[in-house]
Specification:
single chain, about 500 residues, alpha+beta, Beta-lactamase, 5-stranded antiparallel beta sheet, 14 helices, 16 strands, about 25% helix
Length: about 500
């Protein structure tokens, strides 16, 4: 399923979390999180089979716990080594693999991908006649391809080949993957694009993506519970969580087979995901990193897509969040009956990972509760970097106050600018979900731009006849302009 849809469902299903704040010290005992998270009661309330969670701080895992069972049929307990299907969390790992191969001189990600393909070639399209898409454009979803996500398969069923998948000879699709726009001119979340990357890798190196990922990432990092091998293949792990439907029943064999491995076929544990994130964080500061280079870490987490890109996107990582005054790299995964997230700060080595084996209505409330609790209780407070603030006049405030279609993530929800105690704040259910310790105050900077506290993009408003008519989102060297659609009536 598309990450965008997942975000919306995650928010709608969110459960409010009321917890007391605890001040943590360097030598704190993090076991208090068990009582605060209250996962056992959450599992019972939402009929969720199992849940595994890890928290890391200052580049170290400080908390790990597992709750529930691998299968509600067997009641076998989940442990730290129990692997879950990670769905779309496979994408940033695939992107990481490609960038590591490029650094070794084995790929050029700025080259068109089609010459690397042998089993199938890109379909003819007016959009690529003069602009053949590159590896890089498939990895940051700017190639313009369709096929957002895929249906899982199970042992005993006919498992489609990669070629059949790209030809659209699979459930959900009835035609070959196609292009929606000229590569590099827009953004469209595409699992099909990552399937093309998988085929190109395998055709080029004459190895499966599972072998490549193990050779360059999983084995060097010592990840014994992470694999891209599928349940119908030799070497698939035995300590795994089975997928469940919304009634709490195991779906078919409980072991989804995903031929589209690059976009959604990896299996892992929160501990291993945290180790990947910490290695990334160490690489970003160029200290204690052993497998991922500083150069690769910077490249794969750089924001390269802003227009229509849900607040900002890099290569497999979403970069739309700013809670607790940090810049975050983030990826969630959502397949039928299983899902989770990996989230890390770009500095200071903080973050969390969790995976759950249950359907969306069962796991989303538990995941939301867990995320909010961790963000509130952990002592994570980054330094604001948006510059000097200036006072906002009453006239300017009045031009901004109102209700609008969502202009931060372009997801169609209502977004309000309201005044409280002579200050302006931005409110929406999306910002509420992404909320950390701070309220989302809208501040006016000395350079004439605006900043929403704990939202990563700068804003430049335009005004006509005393009201805001458009806003330009600004991130690094990128800009995207959005027309403001008011949902309230403005007095003349």
């Amino acid at each position: 399923m598309k990450n965008i849809i997942y975000i919306l469902l995650f928010v709608v299903a969110s459960a409010n979390c009321q917890t007391s704040h605890k001040i943590l010290t360097k030598n704190a005992d993090y076991s208090f999180l068990t009582d605060s998270l209250n996962i056992d009661q959450q599992l019972e309330k939402y009929k969720l089979a199992g849940f595994s969670v890890v928290v890391f701080q200052n580049y170290q895992i400080v908390y790990s716990n597992q709750f529930g069972v691998k299968s509600l049929d067997s009641k076998e307990k989940i442990d730290e080594n129990t692997a879950f299907s990670t769905a779309s969390i496979s994408k940033p790992i695939t992107a990481l693999l490609c960038f590591m191969l490029e650094e070794k001189g084995l790929l050029n990600l700025d080259k068109p991908i089609d010459p690397y393909l042998k089993r199938w070639h890109l379909p003819k399209s007016k959009f690529i006649e003069n602009s053949s898409p590159t590896w890089r454009q498939f990895l940051n979803h700017t190639a313009g391809t369709t096929q957002g996500g895929f249906e899982d398969h199970y042992e005993g069923e006919a498992i489609p080949t990669l070629k059949q998948s790209l030809l659209g000879q699979i459930p959900r699709y009835d035609k070959e993957i196609e292009f929606l726009f000229t590569p590099g001119t827009g953004w469209e979340y595409s699992g099909g694009g990552y399937t093309i990357v998988q085929m190109a890798l395998e055709d080029t190196f004459n190895k499966s993506i599972a072998e490549l990922a193990k050779e360059y990432i999983f084995s060097p990092l010592g990840l014994k519970n992470t694999t891209m091998i599928q349940p119908n293949e030799k070497g698939f792990p035995t300590n795994v969580a089975l997928v469940h439907d919304k009634e709490g029943k195991v779906i078919k064999t409980g072991l989804p087979i995903t031929p589209q491995v690059a976009p959604s076929g990896m299996w892992s544990t929160p501990t291993d995901l945290a180790k990947i994130a910490i290695e990334m964080q160490n690489a970003l500061r160029n200290k204690n990193n052993k497998v991922i280079s500083h150069n690769v870490a910077k490249k794969v987490t750089e924001v390269t897509a802003l227009k229509n890109a849900v607040g900002g996107w890099s290569y497999g990582w979403q970069k739309s969040f700013g809670y607790n005054n940090y810049d975050w790299f983030f990826c969630n995964g959502s397949n039928t009956g299983v899902g989770g997230t990996i989230t890390g700060t770009m500095t200071d080595g903080n973050g969390f990972a969790f995976l759950a084996n249950g359907e969306k209505p069962n796991r989303f409330p538990v995941m939301s509760h867990t995320q909010k609790t961790i963000l509130k209780l952990m002592n994570w407070n980054g330094k604001a970097t948006y510059g000097e603030v200036q006072e906002m006049s009453s006239s300017l405030k009045n031009q901004l106050i109102g209700s609008y279609d969502d202009f931060l993530y372009q997801q169609g929800v209502e977004t309000k600018i309201v005044e409280k105690n002579n200050r302006l704040y931005v409110e929406s259910m999306l910002l509420d979900h992404f909320k950390g310790k701070n309220d989302n105050e809208l501040v006016y900077l000395k350079n004439g731009l605006f900043k929403i506290v704990d939202y990563p993009n700068l804003l430049k408003f335009e005004f006509i006849d005393g009201k805001a008519t458009s806003v330009t989102l600004i991130r690094d060297n990128m800009e995207t302009k959005i027309e403001l659609v008011r949902k309230d009536k403005v007095a003349n």
